[in-house]
Amino acid sequence: MAHTIHNLGFPRIGAQRELKTALESYWRGSSDAAALYETGKSLRERHWQQQQTAGLQFVPTGDFAWYDHIATWAATLGVVSNRYRQNEKITLNSLFLLGRGRAPSGQDTAAGEMTKWFDTNYHYIVPELKADCVFNIEWTQCLDETAAAIAQGLNVKPVIPGPLTFLWLSKGEFNGGCDDEKLLLLDKLLLAYEKILQQFALFGVSWVQIDEPILVLELPLSWQTAFERAYHRLQNSAVKLLLTTYFGGLNNNLMLATRLPVAGLHIDCVRAPEQLKPVVDNLGPYKILSVGIIDGRNIWRTNLAQAFNLLQPLSEKLGDRLWLAPSCSLLHVPVDLAQETELDTQLHSWLSFAIQKLDELNLLSRALSDANVLNSEEWQSHNAAMVDRQLSSRTYNHELRARLENLPSLQHGRSLPYSQRIKQQQQKWALPLFPTTTIGSFPQTADIRKWRKAYRDGDLDAVSYERNIKAIIAETIALQEALGLDVLVHGESERNDMSEYFGEHLTGIAVSEFGWVQSYGSRCVKPPIIYGDILRPAAITVEWSHYAQTQTQLPVKGMLTGPVTLLCWSFVRDDQSRKNTCQQLALALRDEVADLQAAGIGIIQIDEPAFREGQPLNSRDKDAYYQWAVNCFHITTGVADDTTQIHTHMCYSDFNDIMKPIAQLDADVITLETARSRLELLDAQVLANYPSDIGPGVWDIHSPIVPSVAEIQTLLERAAQLIPVERLWVNPDCGLKTRGWPETLESLRNMVTAAQLLRKQYAA
Ligand code: GLN
Ligand code: ZN
Description:
This protein has 764 residues and is α/β, with parallel strands linked by helices. The chain contains 29 helices and 22 strands. The longest helix is centred in the last third of the chain and has 23 residues, at 741-763. The termini are far apart.
């Protein structure tokens, strides 16, 4: 008997980032909406086809989005603010106004707030709800796309965000801002869900996938109760519901989830295999169980022999009530490994991207229904690659392992406390009050991108490449001097991306050619693949930073991506703990700090924008995470002399409740993004208690708008009421690589002027 295999969602950007290209061309005005629609249509059709070829019983529909699937769902429900509408209607351009504040038609406006999708690096647009909002089906994309797939003869399973997850992720002005207030909208919201499900039923759809990933979070009782209320109501709909949970175990919600009156339940058995038994025990006699068995968050080939052993007893027990799927939507992995022709064959054989994952699913289900498959060449060679990886000497390095033995002596951090270090640093650097600096990158011009590509492709020799980059560095340094900045940077023009660049220079890490994953809208990242022990064969950044320092008498700040961020923004090996891998990264970066210091770079910034992203979803695991994350940072900074000033930088996350571990990093200076969260949102008390130097960003670098001197001054004055002025730095929110030169120069000029005015004010 064959088990049903299905998929929770497919990457929508395209194997060659076709959607990105089409979107950006449309936004620029180089092509029209018809061309964009055409690209979207052909991508969807291709993806359905690929999934059908992989033998899935259902192909998912409704997982496509022009910008973001949560924004699309808000549009579907008609909860889109007037400022994004055109003639009161929701249009294609409304989705772009909502996502990025700008579209080929319509007024520029403030974009919707964007935040991270659970613990992934995907960002969704936070829906905005009002207490009196009405839910009307105003945008029918998911219905239309489903109808189109059906018309092609496909067996479809529409995918929609569940009502409680949708409410949980939304924000709005509710009484006292209390989350429970949102639950007052539930009845109205369910009416809209009933209508949509009714539509699907009319199309002849039998199963609808309803995503409720918040069931892996710790939910207040009121929300647990609301789940019961909601699904008791939705059980009357004419379609069967597959309630999907992912990114963790059900834990406290296990009884709740297994007892909800839905036809099927999907659980993530990659992240939380231990929940399989209790879920099965409580499933009841009728419910379908969909087991997420192929990792939707990582790129390793599945250990099918192990999966087989786990599932075989269940296969007999549940029969056709057992379905198999990836753990979550494949949105979080690249599309097709077949495109990777540059990776060596061994490494290639260890990996699996979206298409390969579906093939694995197919193979596993065939093996479960036919024991002969276990003797097939296909099964054996698949498993041989697993064994090859387990036994490979490539993942293991003796030198590094020996060094790790001494780790306890390396994670003590700095030798003197901040209060003493800072005095020595002040003496050495003699910086003015309100010192000005930037976060690292400067605008990346078309020329710079062209040189990097030509060099990579072998069309530009190393000497010419170096000469070109150094010319840019010299120019950038001269500009910063002319602007009157106090601590300069080399500008990062040699870096394509802050994690990929380091991935390229460390052994044990591979970089793919087309391994793109959507981060938000049209933005994609190519996460490095950490497959083995990490070594730094040679200094990575020293040459550039040192060169920059030769161009000026002012201090140049070295620029590193921190160990936690490198970990969070990579595909990480799954044969040891994340903590161990992070320690290895930290050691490699420690050597880089030592080398920078030896080369005369006395101020070094270690970026940790993903510090919070690494936090586990379950609060139970939170303290342990921060403990090792902080320790790793200390491994990296521990070699710094007392006079070496260590900076760190964080952005685009909520800092208030993690200020304690942030303070424990014990950096001499932290620069923070504050435009998105507004300085007011940084808890005054929290700021006042921060122990060392701090630079709250005074320029929102995501906008082309130039902040005026007066605006910056106001922000700084406000900060100066909370932070002792001798510890206050002046800087933008984040790196400037996506900005153009004209607004960069103007904004920095204003920033320096504001700092100078404040110096006078406070010196008096
Ligand atoms: N140093 C990096 C830059 O300026 C920091 C980027 C980030 O925080 N994401 O680009
Ligand atoms: Zn940043």
